[in-house]
Amino acid sequence: MKLGTIGPWVVGLAAVAWVASSLLPAKPVRGMDVDAFGRLPVLEGGRIKPVDSVARNSLLMIRSQMSFRFEQEEGGQKRSHTVGADEWILDILFRPAVADAQPVFVINDPDVLSLIGQKLSQTNRYFAFRDIRPFLAEVQAQAAVAEPIDPKQRTRFQGAVVNLYQRVDLYLRLQNTVQVPGGKPLLEELAGATEPSARERHSLLAGAAFFRPLPPQGTQQANWHSVGEGLRDLAGGGAKDAGLTALARVGAAWTSADVPAFNRAVAELRAFGVAAKPEAVAQGDHEIVFNRVDPFYSGMVIYVAALLLVFASWLWLPELLQASAFALLLAGTVIHTGGLISRVILQGRPPVTNLYSSAVFVGWGAVVLGLILERMYRKGFGTAVAASAGFASLIVAHHLTGDGDTMEMMRAVLDSNFWLATHVTTITIGYSGTFLAGAIAIAWALRKHLAPKLLPATDKTLVSMAYGVICFALFFSFIGTVLGGIWADQSWGRFWGWDPKENGALLIVLWNAIILHARWGGYVRDRGIMTMAIFGNVITSLSWFGVNMLGVGLHSYGFMDKAFYSLSAFVGSQLLLMAVALAPRRFWLGAGRGDAGVGKATGAA
Amino acid sequence: MTETNTVRFAAHKLWDLLTSLKLTIVCLSLLMLLVVACTLAQVQLGTVAAVNLYMRSFLVWWQVPGTSWSLAIFPGGASVGLVLMVNLAAAQGQRLERSWKKAGIWIVHAGLILLFVGEFVTGVFQVETQLAIEEGQTVNYVENTRQQELAVIDVTDPAWDEVHAVPEGLLADGGVIPLPGTPVALRVRRYWENAQLSMPGPGFQPVANMGVGAGVQVQPLRTVSADDRSNVPAAVVEPVAGGRSYGFWLVSGLLGAPQQFIHEGRAYSLAMRPRRQYLPYSMTLKKFSHDVYEGTSIPKNFSSLVHLTNPGKGEARDVLIFMNQPLRYGGKAFYQASFGKNDTLSILQVVENPGWLLPYISCLLVGLGLLVHFGISLRRALRRRSAALEA
Fold first, then answer.
1. Which of A348, A494, B193, B335 is deepest in the core (most CB within 10 A)?
2. pLDDT mean over A19-33
3. Which of A128, A150, A175 is the last residue before a domain boundary?
4. Model confidence band, residue A279 (pLDDT cutoffs 50, 70, 90)
């Protein structure tokens, strides 16, 4: 077989294999099977999820990373290793002193740093709870001043101190979920549950618990219980919760590094979960796969690789590299799609439920459209545009994960799978289309300036691709907008309320309609359409994220102040690209060489 | 050029303009600008005021700072919408081919016209009110939270109240307001669109000499329009009956205590309250539920179990109103909107819009039209491609 045929297959399958390799179970820590502990189902945020998800999301919120390097002294020698989320949560639950020494709080704000007696330094931005503890009262006092202020009105310091306080609060709640730090270990707590002095600790645990590890048992108890509630039941003369005992043994074994006891206790806990809630355990296992593969992150990496291959193909080995790039794009799409399907199954909801998932879905839509375009035109542009759109939107999604669990429960009014599936999905596909048209237009503009030779046929291909995609985007954004109106009519009693998010959607519809009418009327030609398509990126990004920053209206479900600068930078870059698209012919590298059939394009917009 | 020719020429020009695609693009662009302005203005003005200023108006007015002059500076949403509608209809008749090839576009444009009509109908006819109801309570009226009325209620008969309501607008106009069916007339002495009441301070000048209002100070406030705030109007009225004055009474929604005067053995109470509309049916709240996700305070659902009684139609049945599931009854739609008083008070948003079906029809038309049009285009493109490949 020739290299040209086999090469792309190898590249694509290698990418898939790379992702699949992440499914291998994690290495035991100090000989103990932390991975099995991570699989145990718990209830947090109204949703059943594996401990691993709680650990990952908490660590992500506190440290903005899902694992970290930590150097510790054990038996007189220094040992440096990577602490994963499961190991971290075990320490936070059962070895508070160890956890308190780990550098998990990231602090970048210089004023907050000076508040906790630290200086801004290049080398260290991570601090242990131990470092923060002496200043806790001060942090709390400052946060109490800042918290009542509307997030939009807060100064940078106020925002940062509230943020630190919330992370400390999360940390403390996690630490007080199973046992009171500095108090008795859970095993002793169980033995002395009926002591009068224990009552106070039971209430503390029940009130602070960040998650509930005890599944409902039989008919007597319908809800998931926290450790505090379990202890309270026991103190009140209830039967001993077998899960509680097993959990206590896990803690004791983890503290004393008793490998067989730890593995046995975790297995016991799992068996107990299987008996009480088999579907919760199964869901936990599925979610573990999702967590490990981290499909949207791996997808992002594969898209970048695909993009680089396309660029390389324009310089060297065009046939082979272009086909390989397409194979990579395909592999990325498979992973991306798998991730989406997994989310849908785990959440029992349509793909778009919040800002994060809208970014994932916008990217997916653009990639699939790009794939189709590539099959139709086979010039490599489809691959390039799809890969960059997929990469960009997954980057955006990656930066939207900071709020913790990305599969949170839907608030009452949004609790409608039918409308989430129709309105939200359609409108998001509309966003995908508009962005893809913009991306094609950018490719067109850059090509004009960079390509050494101008081929009118390629030009025409790009323009007709953009035109088709704009039609597609108009269709979906219009239908999506109107479906949104119908949902609003069903739930609030008005079809159209001029709410900012609705207006944003309307702007996309109007802009796409203007582009198409301007073309049909012959007022703009290739250059005009392409410039207008780039401006479509501006409008879509503003209506997607910008209106959330206004903080008014029914749709302000994801307020973000940090994103303001990124959004401004994006809008600025698009305006610059519009100028590039409009720059006269004499700036083109390939002007004069090759026949530019669209030399007289009108520069409207 | 003769005069008739000139007229004909001008008419021709106007027709050309009305049917031109340029006008469409100009209108769409103006609409975009209005939508952007309306969205940004909502931060300051609140939704209702911003929409009234930019979208539900024929002209956008700008008050010259420091003067009472207002200048029209931009066409409002209503004018742009109207022009766009005329343009659409005219272009349809004039320019677009009447052929199957354009069938999709025809349907789309018909749907769009209907959408505009729907928004006009909504703008003109839609009435939004509220029905606040506590568990066990029976209510047979809806209230307009943005408008107040002065209710003069004949409470002589303990079993039957006769209500005479004077809308806020009439009070604002001032003068003497007769109450039909009674010997009483109200002379409006003072009126404030938005006012706060407080305990009298130094230099207190009473505005009323009867009832609780005599000991209360009135502080005029600027009018507000933000969504979460409303104006609280106040007035001083002088009931006059049989040639006799019953003194000056202060009325405001902020005065809780009842105020009454007696004329010829009939007792009349005065109360400022949200404007009411009485219904020929009544609702009793049997149960309000506020469900949360286990172990969180994230709301999962709100629902009101209501008993609906309509003696006129002999109807009496239970209805469950919950999120995304309103009750449509008697031309009104009742939505679960809010709640209070420790989950025993349910607030239903009540919307009456005779044009509520229009957007549904129009979106069906537009969706269908776009599908037909893109289907036709796609078929043509594919045919062209296969022809090109064969060649």
1. B335
2. 83
3. A175
4. confident
Which residues from A are below 8 Å from B293, CB to CB? Answer: 45-47, 409
CA–CA–CA angle A487, A489, A493 (5° rounding): 140
pLDDT at B343 over 90: no
Domain containing A315: what range?
285-587
Tokens representing residue A248 in the block:
């206590």
Distance from CA of A47 to the nearest CA of B (A): 8
Q: Tell me the shortest Cα–Cα distance from A499 to chain B, in angstroms.
A: 7
Number of domains present in the structure of chain A: 3
CA pair distance A44, A30, nearest whole angstrom: 28
* Judgement on whether residues A270 and A388 belong to the same structural domain of the protein: no
Are B326 and A490 in contact (CB < 8 Å)? Answer: yes
Sort out which chain A residues have CB atoms less than 8 A from B122's CB and list them. 494-496
Residues whose CB is less than 8 angstroms from the CB of residue A453 and which lie 6 or more positions away in sequence, other chains included: A590, A593, A594
- State whether A521 and B22 contact (CB < 8 Å): yes
pLDDT band at B70 (very low <50, low <70, confident <90, very high): confident
Domain membership flag for residue A229:
yes
Q: Which residues in chain B are contacts of A223 at CB distance < 8 A?
A: 294-295
A84 lies in some domain = no
What is the C-alpha separation between A118 and A111, in angstroms, rounded?
9
Last residue of a domain, one of A239, A261, A277: A277
Nearest CA in chain B to A492: B335
Q: Which amino acid is at B159?
A: A
pLDDT tens digits for A294-317?
899 899 999 999 988 888 887 888
Asked whether the beta carbons of residue A224 and residue B126 sit closer than 8 angstroms, the reply is no
* Higher-pLDDT residue of A1, A556: A1
Token pair of B56 as six digits:
């539900």
In chain B, the N- to C-terminal Cα span, in Å, equals 56
pLDDT for residue A533 is more than 50: yes
Looking at the fold, whether A362 and A510 belong to one and the same domain comes out as yes
Of the pLDDT bands very low, low, confident and very high (cuts 50, 70, 90), residue B25 is very high
Residues A289 and A273 in one domain: no
A382 and A511 together in one domain: yes
Let me know whether A244 and A303 are in one domain. Answer: no
Phi, psi (rounded to 5 degrees) for A401? -85, -10
- Say whether both A302 and A390 belong to one domain: yes
Please tell me the predicted confidence (pLDDT) of residue A531: 94
Nearest CA of chain B to the CA of A259: how many Å?
Answer: 33
Residue with tokens 């150097």: A71
pLDDT for residue A595: 43
Residues of B in contact with A550 (CB under 8 A): 39-40, 42-43
- The alpha-carbon gap from A91 to the nearest alpha carbon of chain B, in Å, equals 24
Same domain? For A351 and A481 the reply is: yes
| pLDDT score of A122 more than 80 | no
**pLDDT-wise least confident of A462-471, A486-495, A569-578, B325-334:** A486-495
Contacts of A42 in chain B (CB under 8 A): none
Cβ distance B32 to A212 less than 8 Å, yes or no, reads: no
The token pair at A124 is 């260290």
Q: Is the pLDDT of residue A554 over 60?
A: no
Asked, for residue A54, whether it belongs to a domain, the answer is no
Nearest to A514 among B28, B36, B335 (CB): B28
Of B166, B196, B322, B363, give the one whose Cα is nearest residue A490: B322
Report d(CA B298, CA A481) in Å as an integer.
27
A265 and A314 part of one domain? no
Q: Which of A412, A489, A511 sits opposite B300 (nearest CB)?
A: A412
A383 in Cβ contact with A374 (< 8 Å): yes
Question: Which residue is it, tokens 């400390």?
Answer: A168
Tell me which of A26 and A596 has the higher pLDDT: A26
Q: Residue B28: which of A408, A492, A513 has the nearest Cβ? A: A513
Q: Which of A44, A47, A412 sits opposite B301 (nearest CB)?
A: A412
Nearest to A553 among B25, B42, B356 (CB): B42
A vs B, Cβ pairs < 8 A, gives 156
Answer whether residue A45 is part of any domain.
Answer: no
